[in-house]
Write a structure and sequence with these properties.
With 386 residues, the protein is an alpha/beta fold. It has helices at residues 6-16, 27-37, 40-47, 54-61, 111-122, 136-141, 158-171, 189-193, 206-209, 212-216, 226-236, 246-251, 265-273, 295-306, 320-328, 338-370, 375-381; strands spanning 66-67, 83-85, 88-90, 94-96, 127-128, 149-152, 176-179, 257-260, 278-281, 311-313, 333-336, 384-385. It binds flavin mononucleotide (FMN) and benzoyl-formic acid (173). Belongs to the FMN-dependent alpha-hydroxy acid dehydrogenase family.
Length: 386
């Protein structure tokens, strides 16, 4: 049976013929390489966060304050990293978080398709953002056998929201992720200092421009008057959602409904009472609010409140060990954000696939060393504050 950890052997064996990995295997070097290669405006948008980026830094740093105790003399020669989610069996607990500018992370402007191909290649699901350079149908078409999820930014216009969800259902996505924390953009000094917001420059709006409800709002089609289409987008982008909207959100789809951005146990309980199928604990990678608490430190409270309802997690995952810690703290599945965006920027689909394979290899080998043959064993072992 192949293991994710086999990627390590593949690297060492290639070294015997003088071949070293095209991209680094660690996040710090990957980020450095991406910083040198990406256009400064795109890099600033991806790498930056809210305020002085304390929350963003803390998201990653906080993993150092959680530790795990190894167990010996356990037969870990076969490992199984698969998890069950919404009745599907996923090969690993890792997914690609929705990242709305991956379209412009590759030089050809088709980073969304490249991410979808990386998903097809690795079996790591993609959460396809509403903000995409290719229509959600084309992205779905590149996912191969790997299940995909559609992330909805709920527009002010309900008919447009419904149209996007119908399209996602028709395209075969397996769940709808509604992001709650970004109806307005957080204060992002890196972007503000260069007055750059890619969406207002017309980037990554193809799901809107291809939507019949959106197009009907325009005097002229986006192909004829791009500036007016962007203005219309800015006017319609972000609906202020309240709990009163929950019944409507739930009624939008019979697919699993996942609420992204929940960090407070009371919000988790309320979402579940109102029919959410999963809670997605995330602080948007520290891009939205510079509140200070690392997302991983809020995960245990959300997991306790959610009971049997699956909790997904992202914000600060930089390594396989981070993945394992998040699972130990109760996440059913773990999202990766910036790391795969850098992989895309440096080497397209192959770069993203490499980043994911490295994370999975490290997670698998950590489980092997620490005596946890399955994800259930990781969860049972737990993690402690150090
Ligand atoms: C450049 C960028 C764009 C993002 N766009 C979206 C988006 O369109 N929808 C969404 O729900 N989250 C979006 N996110 C947030 C990610 O889904 C995720 O919460 C975050 O990246 C996790 O933190 P990490 O990048 O530090 O791992 C974006 C994040 C980044 C870095
Ligand atoms: O950049 C982001 O994090 C993001 O998701 C977003 C999307 C649209 C408007 C503002 C922020």
């Amino acid at each position: 049976m192949p293991h994710f950890g086999d990627y390590q052997n593949a690297i060492y064996n290639a070294g015997l013929s003088g071949v070293i990995p095209k991209l680094p295997v660690d996040y710090a070097t990957l980020e450095q390489r991406a910083s040198a290669a990406m256009p400064p405006s795109v890099l600033g948008y991806v790498q930056g966060g809210c305020g002085d980026e304390f929350t963003q830094d803390n998201n990653a740093h906080a993993f150092r304050h959680w530790g795990m105790t190894p167990r010996m003399m356990v037969d870990c020669s076969r490992r199984d990293l698969s998890v069950e989610l919404f009745g599907m069996r996923l090969p690993s607990p890792v997914f690609m978080a929705p990242v709305g500018v991956i379209g412009i992370c590759t030089q050809d402007g088709h980073g969304d398709l490249a991410a979808a191909r990386a998903s097809a290649e690795t079996g790591v699901p993609l959460m396809a953002s509403t903000l995409s350079n290719d229509p959600l149908e084309s992205v779905a078409g590149a996912l191969g056998e790997t299940p995909g999820f559609f992330q909805l930014y709920t527009p002010k216009d309900k008919a447009l929201a419904e149209s996007l969800v119908r399209r996602a259902e028709a395209a075969g996505y397996k769940g709808i992720v509604v992001t709650l924390d970004t109806w307005v953009t957080g204060w992002r000094p890196r972007d503000l200092n260069v007055a750059n917001f890619p969406q207002l420059r017309g980037a990554v709006l193809m799901n809107y421009f291809s939507d019949p409800v959106f197009r009907a709002m325009l005097a002229k089609p986006p192909e004829e008057d791009g500036a007016a289409a962007v203005r219309q987008w800015a006017g319609v982008f972000g609906k202020v959602l309240t709990w009163d909207d929950m019944a409507w959100l739930r009624s939008l789809t019979t697919l699993p409904l996942i609420l992204k951005g929940i960090c407070h146990p009371d919000d988790a309980r309320r979402a579940i009472d109102a029919g959410a199928d999963a809670i997605y604990c995330s602080n948007h990678g520290g891009r939205q609010a510079n509140g200070g608490i690392a997302a991983i430190d809020m995960l245990p409270g959300v997991v306790a409140a959610a009971g049997d309802v699956p909790v997904l997690f992202d914000s600060g995952i930089r390594s396989g060990s981070d993945v394992v810690k998040a699972i130990a703290l109760g996440a059913r599945a773990v999202g990766v954000g910036r790391p795969y965006a850098y992989g895309l920027a440096l080497d397209g689909a192959a770069g993203a696939a490499h980043v994911l394979r490295c994370l999975l290899a490290e997670a698998d080998l950590l489980m092997a060393v620490n005596g946890w043959p399955t994800i259930a064993d990781v969860r049972a072992a737990g993690a402690v504050r150090i």
